[in-house]
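Students often ask why we bother encoding 3D structure as a string. The short answer is that it lets us treat folding as translation between two languages. Here is a chain of 288 residues written in the first language.
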Amino acid sequence: MKELQAKAGVLVEALPYLRRFAGRTVVIKYGGAAMTEERLKESVAQDLVLLKTVGLDPVVVHGGGPEITEAMRRQGKQPVFKDGLRVTDAETMAITEMVLVGKINTQITAAMNRLGRVAAGVSGKDGLLLEARRMRGKHDLGFVGEVVRVNTGILEALRDRGFIPVIAPVAMGADGESYNCNADLVAGAVAAALKAEKLVLMTDQPGLLRDLRDPDSLIPSVRASEVPGLKRRGIIDKGMLPKMEACLAALKAGVGKVHIIDGRVPHALLLEIFTDRGIGTEITGGRP
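And here it is in the second language, the structure alphabet:
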């Protein structure tokens, strides 16, 4: 009886969130261990299908860094990263597109569709969903793109037909070239374009940590105004840089809530969205 009462308590705790988020868009960046460990892959698929079933509108942007790295090494190429982004020459771009679109995207949609006919995979090139240009900065990253426009029509059409869009972060430029876009930054751009209620970035650590060696040093909440100082101190560094950039861009565009959560925790999405405490780090507004 106590076990049943505990389950009822969980449902009661979730009720205000079910009401609040009904019909609202939640953009989720899916990556890390949650994409490679079978038990976590199943957990995420269940969470996403449940979100759709109870009335939310999830939109998924997936990464695939480890799989791209493995495919590159099989072909004798050594990955190079600068400021958390993969340097992408023409051969690496071809490998990236093959892995993201041809393999990972189909696997994610299949996992959800085994639980119900709910998911549809798209590349950022489909319907010119993502338009990009070569990323500018202090490093030459090759065919790494920054999104300049999100054409939401294909996402709205899928939503209206009851599907969860699953986006592979490959874009097309005005020059006709294909571009490898960081999945965190794409998720931020998509959340901004859709005026999402939430942006949730899944990663392989508890959230933003004061000390990467100490998982108990989680920073539960960060204001945008604190971000420059955290960068100077090296707390926000490497792979966390594009994540934080995505968070700030989404907040600036009016996205309601932004979170970085630990995708290694089973049912992390449900814990973040439907519980009072939530998990991970919340980034809140305020000028950086």
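Translate back mentally: The domain at 21-284 is CATH 3.40.1160.10 (Carbamate kinase). Keep this in mind for the problem set.
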